[in-house]
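Supplementary Data S3. Sequence and structure tokens for construct A.
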Amino acid sequence: MAEPDDVWFIRLPDGRVLRAGSTASVRHHLESGEIPPDSRVRRAHGEAWVFLERTSEFADLVPHRSRTPAQPPAARRPASSRLLETDANRAGAPVGGLHLHTVDVRGGVTELLTALESTFVRGRLLGAGAVTVAAAVLVLLANRTRLGQDVWPPLPWVAAGLVALFLQALYAAYVTQATFVELSTLRPARAEEARAGLLRNALRVVLVELCAPGGLLLLIGGLRWLGSWLAEPPDGSVVEAIVGAAAVVRLVLEVVFWPVAGLSLLLAPVVVIEEASPPRVLWQWGALLRQHLSRVFVYEALAAALGLITTLPLLVPVTLAAWACSPAELANPVVRGALGVLFGVALAPLLAYVTVANLFIYLNLRYEHAPSAR
């Protein structure tokens, strides 16, 4: 995807920062009075803020800037606040459109809320349901058939996990591509646009996810094996110390794994939008986390909470139904299979939402974040 090259950041007199997708957008809102004439602008967050009258693009619209003391925040243009309540709440604004967006945590929360509008589309929910149901079926098959367990005990679970990971990556690549096209063009994505580079992007998502949370899983499994292998000989102080140290490191990695798994949801947007190789994707993902770790953590936590809230109306009834089953019924493979499918259907909104929300999170961090100047 092409990176926007006509983006402007506008700092209002009260310190709030807006993002406009084009020069035409800034001129439009200047002419309509939505942007106060004593605001300042810049192209990127590394540049200095410049008054509108000192820019060649907007100087003709701001012939003279008032030198009087600034008004109190309550007396400043209410039109800007109305703009934030309307245009900034539109999730479908194109990069080059005339809409403005807040560039702060509040703007990110707004993006997460409006991402719900792009999530609850029948096709995306059906696709998410197909992925979650397929994952549940794979778990049931791995538990029941256990093909290849004689060769290597974890083989059935590894095979089921890889297939489920590929299905999730395929879904994430498709939905991310389609949603980005819709945000960029303000129209539904055509089938050929959503499928462009789909298999390539899905394979890249699989590779980078195997390298990030998958690498931690490999270390955890290796430490678990090491601990069990060292525990076989007769106990000794040195062996016990090594086993204890390996267990402590494994516990720490197990704790770290879940946040990393959540943060790895940003890998799919990086793959699809930047169209980079897997090493480049991992580097960009790491750079994004280093620069915005606290912001990413807050966004991902909020996205997970919103996803769970939208999932609860389906998840609670299935959980209550499973709780009401007797032990004999739960031992029946047919009942377990039915419950697995029902849980997969219930989790479909969660998968759909976190996939769409992470695109919004990435766009907010990658193109819209700019620290306020003091």
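Construct B, processed identically:
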Amino acid sequence: MLYIFNSPSPRNRRLGFTLVELLVVIAIIGVLIALLLPAVQQAREAARRMQCTNNQKQLGLALHNYHDVNRSFPAGFHNRNGWSWCTFLLPYVEQNAMYDQLSVTTSRMDFSDSNILSGAQTKITDFRCPSDSAPDLNDYLTPKGSDDSRPEVALANYVGSMGPDNAAVTDSPGNGIFWALSYIKMRDILDGTSNTFLLGERNYFVNKGSLWVGVTHSSTGSSDKKMTLASVRTSDGALNDPTNVKCFSSLHPGGALFTFCDGSVQFIPETIDAAYDYTNSSGTQTISTYQRLGCRNDGVPIGSY
């Protein structure tokens, strides 16, 4: 028996989705994007944090090489010529041409010199955290050159550890690694190189970042201003303190990366004990784990953190 079926006429054939079906598809796509986006962001941050770790490892290695050649770490900064520890580290991070362009060994940080100014305005990725999407030039912190000008210069995210001692604000000996004319040697790190901060991070959007080229010229500006450009005291607020522009900080969620004096890089959580009291009832300083990590010679064991 032969059956004959009539095919539907073109007039009755469906040519697309209904409005309800379209809205359902859009909603499903939106849910999938909402689920996928955080995973993508986490993967990108993990990659940026790995790159930041690598940057700090390279700086730690460069500082060790500098110490091998010069028998000390570089000074945190120089009052007379303005250059910071980053500038003296340039030949050890494959930036010999920049070191020569700045004439570091023979000149001051004089921005009337076009070669010095152009060099100071050059972004150097070794000194930048990839999680910090700040502009190339730091419009918050502007050092004063010997020509009395204040141009914007290149931003940096890595600052030296000055230690918790207030004495380090001046040229007097501090208890960290970097301050004016510091030149700390390995033998001065009595608490052990694996227990002492060498350098850490400071982000631009909350704590103004830093500068790699140098600090305020010696003719003006307080030592405290100079410190904010080159080094950080661990007593200056807790880690990632948004109320204190001078503290260590980062845009990595939950903490910041630090290089220790043995060259290792560790992630320090912002929940670390950072209590610090100069005026307690016994007349002695109350110092926490965070501050002890910044101090090279207090002789007190450091617990877990």
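Confidence is low (pLDDT under 50) at residues 167-171, 217-224. Strands lie at 137-138, 153-156, 158-161, 197-201, 210-211, 231-232, 255-260, 265-269, 276-277, 286-287.
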